[in-house]
Specification:
Helices cover about 20% and strands about 45% of the residues. By secondary structure, it is an alpha+beta fold. The protein has one domain (about 1-135, about 205-420): Beta Barrel (Lipocalin), CATH 2.40.128. Strands 1-2-4-5-6-7-8-9-11-12-13-14-15-18 form a 14-stranded antiparallel barrel. A two-stranded antiparallel sheet has the order 16-17. Strand 13 and strand 14 form a beta hairpin.
Length: about 425
């Protein structure tokens, strides 16, 4: 049954061969996620951080996922019609959601060789999902990546070899294949069923649904270091990462009850570290960072075929940052213009550029404060007001797209709420 579902995903033909390069859901997710991490970076934790909760969501993502899963509850021919209507109604759209939970425990500070270290112990976990709908082609080169591990290698080889030469609507397998694959169970009825599982559909230009989900947890200390005008941090941690990427056609959605199944996740446990080094002079500072540098692999659980999936779909791409800001202070008010760039494999350098400013005031010995953040990148205007008390802060954020689309795909607006507790 799963073979039928997976192969239906593979063999919808579409018109534009160039569209394949236009949409990669993991690359788009990296960019969305790094932008959210940048906003998180701009609200520093502090040594007295205890609890951080952050939820970011495109308002349509849950409804879109729910609607997609409801299609399987239709009956008969209505399933395929409902699935096709759903995909075409959401064609060239994308949606994202993410939830973060983090805890911190301040540790005693110490000094070594004139360098003051202020450490914390951190534990964090997050879950994120992205969905995109787009009409893009499937070729023999993409078949191996999209086939599930449940499909045997002989069938994979036949599918790849015959994909380009098979007439749309015909089976990619023949009677001779049935003898080899089915063995003693090769009857006329079983052979017909097998061949019908691996058809090359004739219907072109149908939008597919691309879905990606990633879970991650981290545990380890962070050592903030200060000496004179220089500062930095070293953050070694154990990271558990698991993810899953899937592609759905209308026929697949008509039969599939769950978009994601937990036992299909590929997951790794790694030793990773972040590094940051900066310089501060008066009210101006600049710093550079390398994040998610993998040091060692501690454990892997290859649910998928290890010969074809040697890592998570997200991979082990390093994130690079450069950030600078300057603070002007006057009568309790502070204006902090800032700018920077982040870069990771999967998106262009210009995609990581950002600039903005914080404007706020505080009184009662900084026990009460209000701050408003505004920033701009090449896709979004971000607005984020924040309320801060001596034991907590609350921030709401809206990332509003100032472009209508990128590579023919509508950009998702993102809204988030952040709650942070101090001691």
């Amino acid at each position: 049954m799963l073979g039928k579902k997976v192969l239906v995903v593979l063999f919808w033909l579409v018109v534009s061969i160039n569209a394949l390069a236009d949409y990669n859901i993991v690359d788009r997710f990296r960019l969305y996620d790094d932008r959210l991490k940048t906003v998180e970076m701009l609200r520093p934790y502090g040594h007295d951080f205890l609890l951080n909760i952050n939820a970011a969501l495109n308002p349509d993502v849950k409804k879109t996922l729910d609607d997609a899963e409801k299609i399987s509850k239709s009956t008969g021919s209505a399933q395929l019609a409902d699935a096709t209507t759903f995909l075409n109604n959401h064609k060239n759209e994308e949606f994202i959601g993410k939830f973060d939970l983090a805890f911190g425990i301040p540790l005693p500070s110490f000094t070594v060789s004139g360098i003051k270290f202020i450490p914390d112990l951190r534990f964090g976990t997050n879950l994120a999902a992205q969905v995109g709908t787009k009409a893009v082609p499937l070729t023999a080169q993409t078949v191996v990546d999209l086939l599930g591990p449940e499909i045997s290698q002989p069938i994979v080889d036949l599918v790849v070899a015959r994909f380009d030469t098979t007439v749309p609507g015909d089976s990619l397998l023949d009677n001779t294949d049935c003898v080899i694959i089915l063995g003693a169970e090769n009857t006329v009825d079983n052979c017909t069923k097998l061949k019908n599982k691996y058809l090359k559909p004739a219907n072109p230009d149908i939008a597919d649904l691309f879905a990606y989900v990633k879970y991650e947890s981290q545990f380890g200390p962070i050592f903030n270091a200060y000496k004179g005008d220089f500062f930095g941090s070293f953050n070694p941690y154990v990271r558990h990462r698991a993810d899953l990427k899937r592609r759905f056609t209308a026929e697949f959605l008509a039969e599939e009850s769950e978009l994601f199944e937990k036992d299909e996740l590929v997951d790794f446990v790694d030793l990773v570290s972040d590094f940051m080094f900066g310089y501060k002079k008066g009210e101006w500072k600049i710093y550079a960072a390398i994040e998610e540098l993998k040091i060692a692999e501690l454990k892997k659980n290859m649910v998928l075929d290890g010969t074809r999936y040697g890592e998570t779909f997200y991979g082990n791409e390093i994130l690079f940052r450069l950030h600078s800001d300057y603070t002007f202070k006057l009568a309790g008010f502070a204006l902090t213009p800032f700018g920077g760039i982040h870069k990771r494999s999967g998106y262009d350098l210009v995609d990581g550029l950002y600039a903005g400013a914080d404007l706020g005031f505080s009184f009662w010995q900084d026990r009460f404060g209000l701050l408003a953040k505004a920033m701009l990148d090449n896709e979004y205007i971000t607005l984020a007001p924040r309320l801060q008390l001596w034991f907590m802060q609350l921030e709401v954020m809206g990332k509003i797209a100032h472009k209508s689309e990128v590579d023919g795909t509508k950009i998702a607006n993102i809204y988030s709420v952040n709650f942070r507790l101090f001691f």
